[in-house]
Amino acid sequence: MADEEHHAIRIHLDRLLAERGMTLTELSAQVGITVVNLSVLKNDRAKAIRFSTLSRICEVLQCQPGDLITHEPAPDGRSSP
Q1: Domain limits at 39?
Q2: Is the pTM of this model over 0.85?
Q3: Average pLDDT, the chain
Q4: What CATH number is associated with residue 18?
C-alpha cells in the first residue's frame, strides 16, 4: 500500500448541492465551515469528518448521512484507490 491510505468511502456532496441548486459557498455560509474544508470533503480528499460537521451539513441539505456518504468497495472486496 502506498504512503497514503486509500478507502472506499465516497462523499456525494456535489450531487446533493446540484439537486438543491446550492453552491459550495452558500453551504459554507450556512454550515459555518470554510469553503476550503468543504471542498476537501467534496473532492474525496478528506480523511475524517466530525459528527458535528456531518450533522450541520445534513441539517442544511435536509438529508440523511447515508445520502451524503456511501461505501463503495472495489470488486475484489478491498478498499479502492
Answers
A1: 9-70
A2: no
A3: 88
A4: 1.10.260.40
